[in-house]
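sry for the spam today, last one i promise. struct tokens for design, 95 residues
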């Protein structure tokens, strides 16, 4: 009977230690999941902010300003346009 009681005591202690270890792992995984979800929310917010900034950077007025200032481009006008005749198309039409 004493052996049976000791065996049962050891079994109860082992299962108690296993239960505590399992709860600890569960809490640890839950906090990791919570951190990952918070990081996902932060990244989603950053993505939306960057998309708004991208749209703001791609406005036609900003592109025109950059073209004028950095590339020193000018609007096309008939006075500065050069028209080139396609020699291949006109030679083919003569034949």
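last one done:
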């Amino acid at each position: 009977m004493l052996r049976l009681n000791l065996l049962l005591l050891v079994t109860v202690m082992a299962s108690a230690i296993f239960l505590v270890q399992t709860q600890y792992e569960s809490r640890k995984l839950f906090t990791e999941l919570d951190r990952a979800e918070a990081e996902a929310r932060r990244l989603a917010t950053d993505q939306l902010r960057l998309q708004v900034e991208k749209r703001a950077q791609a406005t036609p007025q900003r592109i025109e300003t950059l073209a004028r200032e950095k590339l020193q481009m000018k609007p096309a006008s008939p006075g500065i346009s050069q028209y080139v005749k396609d020699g291949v198309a006109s030679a083919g039409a003569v034949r």
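The chain has three helices and no strands. ok im logging off now
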